[in-house]
Amino acid sequence: MKYDAVVLAGSPNRGRLRECSSVENEALIPIGNRVMLDYVVAALLKAKSVGRLVIVGPKIELQKLYGGNSRIMLAESGSTVIDSLKAGIQVLKPQSHILVTTGDIPLLSQEAVDNFIAKCTDREVDVYYPIVPREINERQYPQVKRTYVNLKEGTFTGGNIFLVNPFKVDSCAEKGNQLVNLRKSPLALSRQIGLLFILKFLLKRLSLSEVELQFSKLLSIKGKAIVLDYPEIGIDVDKPSDLELVRKILA
């Protein structure tokens, strides 16, 4: 089965990457003779499990790059990531799960995409999200600094591709925004998440199944983590050192 994909490529180049390139959009920063986004798009087009793509970003610039490809559609990005995702969904009009990726993971490979989707077998799950073991990440890319979470099963970092039930995006977004708004109120946030959950996390006694259950409960969906041995899914370019690294690798 092939899944349609939404590529989120609307982030303006106003952060630390501005010192590396003057282009207005981060996904369009050059790497070699191509833009960063193009490496992601190429991997998705090669993947056997991916059908159509919709790229959400600066539509005029994207038209120049991809206007002639029959598998690629375009949508203008929204003011938030969720608005951009909704714009992509509106163009695709999907009938089943969709793959969602960001446009800033240029090391993404066809194999990583197909392996991830092959492990997403339960259609009752609303959101699949990948996690990569620390030892895999540090063995293949020791230069990359990542944020890790310690669980009973091991230490993991997250990835930037997801398999999502598009019909649950609205309800997830509403609850997600509530949690974000509570981030400056630790007491209120702990009430939502659960004090026992927080304590077990701090004591490194939290299991992966407990995280999945709490994630699902908070967002009123069914979520599942997929352990993946492809660290490139999480190597996003958001600072000059990241860009320097991927330029060396892709050269």
How would you classify the helix and strand content by structural class? alpha/beta
Number of strands: 11
Query: What would the average pLDDT be, to the nearest integer?
Result: 92
The gyration radius over C-alpha positions equals 18 Å
Describe this entry's structure for a reader.
By secondary structure, this protein is an alpha/beta fold. It has one domain (3-250): Spore Coat Polysaccharide Biosynthesis Protein SpsA, Chain A, CATH 3.90.550. It has ten helices and eleven strands. The strands form two sheets. Strands 1, 4, 5, 6, 7, 8, 9, 10 and 11 form a nine-stranded mixed β-sheet that branches. A two-stranded antiparallel ribbon has the order 2-3. It is globular and about 50 Å long.
Short structural description:
With 251 residues, the chain is α/β, with parallel strands linked by helices. The protein has helices at residues 36-46, 59-66, 81-92, 110-118, 134-140, 169-181, 186-193, 195-202, 208-219, 240-250; strands at 3-8, 30-31, 34-35, 50-57, 72-76, 98-102, 127-133, 149-151, 154-158, 161-164, 223-227.
List the helices and strands and how they pair.
Elements: E1 3-8, E2 30-31, E3 34-35, H1 36-46, E4 50-57, H2 59-66, E5 72-76, H3 81-92, E6 98-102, H4 110-118, E7 127-133, H5 134-140, E8 149-151, E9 154-158, E10 161-164, H6 169-181, H7 186-193, H8 195-202, H9 208-219, E11 223-227, H10 240-250
Parallel strand pairs: 1-4, 1-6, 4-5, 7-11
Antiparallel strand pairs: 2-3, 6-10, 7-9, 7-10, 8-9
